[in-house]
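dumping this here so i dont lose it
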């Protein structure tokens, strides 16, 4: 009895049971159904290619016959998968649901349409040790005698919408390999596509352009201090004719973009909601400006549900609309994206300093079952400058998951490579968005070792140092190089650790290049505060750790930032969201 329970537990956990059900890769063939989708064919080819890389042997790829041998791998939910896993109701799998199951007659690696099979392959390869750190850095283990253990895995992602939106995530391959489902937003059948938005955000004026409509219908736009205006303003969302017009505009967009599953009907990126009597009455009734945006979103959602039953209307709870209304509930086909822009990002979002935002999450989660969060992971005024928030990323994702959040957009350095520790942040968040319960500390250590090699220990200590400093002061996403956590002692000790990291990989060209790219962030602060920090070092009796002149550091910094790199990398082209070029950034230092 005990042994039966033991083996049942092993199977449930997806672990190996010695010998039985294992797949010997040296004997395997990867097969897919003759009627497979493009995504399933691509997934099968990826499986064969990576197994060949791991074993050093050519793993064959073929379309399936009527049966397979025990060591063969069936990719995709075709006839053979159905035969080998008769208990699975394949047509009811979620679009990203993953099935990895060993059977006496072959290993099945499949999932729901359109992305489940692609994710199943990458999730299995991840179990075998493959890591896609960045678009330019992939680790593939070597094992000529690879045996895939007996597995019985069925997974659905913890979040339905997953986007660590740094520059890495704009690469379709990396996005898919790490099971993120929103990046470049370019239709890509091979990878199973991504979540497809019609519009993405701040769409009021895209739907109702002030030119020509303000002249024709000034009543459709915000009334501010008794006058209608389009100057940094919004729409009059309670106007009946405006609402009908927006609905027709949305329908036109969806007819032009039939693959869209979400359409954005969201406020402009400014303040000035309408102050007309009708709008003010609704705000007073609901106790929040959010009633203005939600009421319009609900109206559009009701108007499209029959023609577009699989499309949701996305709107924002952002700045002036952040607080939930008293009783107005989003329709089932409405997504509310709550934005954390005002928060202290050195603190977890459920910390006392962020209590107002935490309350907003709880209040919105009581009203809707489809709450998304728009979070921030970089300093938009200074991409390359450190933002000490690595330690809170895991706790934040768990807080979101525990409060019913279904989708998360983590906005990073989306216009250029070079964001401080963005490679770590994007990879870590991709893993956590799939599994919010994953150990973020262990994942961080895994990345530091895998990506930086023996330099990872020093960089880990640097992260602890800078995160501790950020936690003790205010940490926002627009602070300059004089942010309170950048004391002289923190910057001095950080530079020491980066120099230690470089020394640790001095004989490894690839790892040294990676360390130097990441070292740019602390050097960025030194470049901005050169004279002040030199005086502080002299006052403390410390040796100066950097080159003797700023010009020398400028040349080093610019060479690393804009120089060539490995395949998949592109040089830094912007040091901030305003697209300031590195060459222009350093001009003031000569």
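and the seq i came up w/
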């Amino acid at each position: 009895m005990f042994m039966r329970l033991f083996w049942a537990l092993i199977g449930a956990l997806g672990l190996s049971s010695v010998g039985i059900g294992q797949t010997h890769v040296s004997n395997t063939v990867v097969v897919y159904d003759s009627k497979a989708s493009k995504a399933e064919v691509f997934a099968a080819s990826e499986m064969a290619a990576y197994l060949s890389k791991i074993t050093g042997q050519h793993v064959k790829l073929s379309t399936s016959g009527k049966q397979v041998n025990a060591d063969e791998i069936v990719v995709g939910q075709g006839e053979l998968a159905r035969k080998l896993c008769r208990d699975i109701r394949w047509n009811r799998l979620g679009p990203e649901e993953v099935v990895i199951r060993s059977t006496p007659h072959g290993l099945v690696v499949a999932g729901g349409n359109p992305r489940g099979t692609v994710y199943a392959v990458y999730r299995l390869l991840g179990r075998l040790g493959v890591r896609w750190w960045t678009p330019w850095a992939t680790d593939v283990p070597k094992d000529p005698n690879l045996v895939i253990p007996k597995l019985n895995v069925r997974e659905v992602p913890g979040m339905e919408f997953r986007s660590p939106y740094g520059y890495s995530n704009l690469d379709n391959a990396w996005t898919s390999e790490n099971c993120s489902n929103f990046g470049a937003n370019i239709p890509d059948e091979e990878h199973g596509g991504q979540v497809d938005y019609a519009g993405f955000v701040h769409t009021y004026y895209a739907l109702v352009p002030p030119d020509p409509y303000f002249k024709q219908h000034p009543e459709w736009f915000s009334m501010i201090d008794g006058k209608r205006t389009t100057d940094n303003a919004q729409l009059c969302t309670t106007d009946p004719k405006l609402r009908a017009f927006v609905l027709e505009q949305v329908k036109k967009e969806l007819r032009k973009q039939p693959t869209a599953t979400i359409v954005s009907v969201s406020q402009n990126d400014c303040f000035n909601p309408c102050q007309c009597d009708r709008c003010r009455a609704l705000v007073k009734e609901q106790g929040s400006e959010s009633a203005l945006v939600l009421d319009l979103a609900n109206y559009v959602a009701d108007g499209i549900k029959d023609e577009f039953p699989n499309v949701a209307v996305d709107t924002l709870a952002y700045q002036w609309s952040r607080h939930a209304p008293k009783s107005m509930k989003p329709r089932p086909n409405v997504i509310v994206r709550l934005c954390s822009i005002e928060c202290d990002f050195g603190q977890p979002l459920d910390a006392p300093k962020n209590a107002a935002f935490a309350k907003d999450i709880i209040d919105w989660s009581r009203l809707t079952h489809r709450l998304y969060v728009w979070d921030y992971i970089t300093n938009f005024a200074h991409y390359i400058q450190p933002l000490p928030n690595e330690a809170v990323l895991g706790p934040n994702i768990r807080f979101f998951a525990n409060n019913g959040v279904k989708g998360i957009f983590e906005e990073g350095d989306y216009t250029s490579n070079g964001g401080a520790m963005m490679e770590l942040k994007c990879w870590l968040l991709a893993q956590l968005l799939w599994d919010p319960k994953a150990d973020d500390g262990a994942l961080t250590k895994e990345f530091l070792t895998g990506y930086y090699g023996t330099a990872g220990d020093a960089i880990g200590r640097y992260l602890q140092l800078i995160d501790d400093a950020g936690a003790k002061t205010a940490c926002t996403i627009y602070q300059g190089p004089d942010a309170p956590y950048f004391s002289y002692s923190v910057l001095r000790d950080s530079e020491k650790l980066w120099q230690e990291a470089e020394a640790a990989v001095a004989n490894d060209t690839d790892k040294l290049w990676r360390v130097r790219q990441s070292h740019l962030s602390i050097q960025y602060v030194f470049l901005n505060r050169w004279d002040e920090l030199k005086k502080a070092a002299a006052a403390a009796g410390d040796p100066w750790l950097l080159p003797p002149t700023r010009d020398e550091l400028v040349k080093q910094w610019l060479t690393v930032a804009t120089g060539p790199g490995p395949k998949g990398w592109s040089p830094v082209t912007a040091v901030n969201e305003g697209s300031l070029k590195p060459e222009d950034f350093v001009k003031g230092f000569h």
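Residues 1-18 have pLDDT under 50 and may be disordered.
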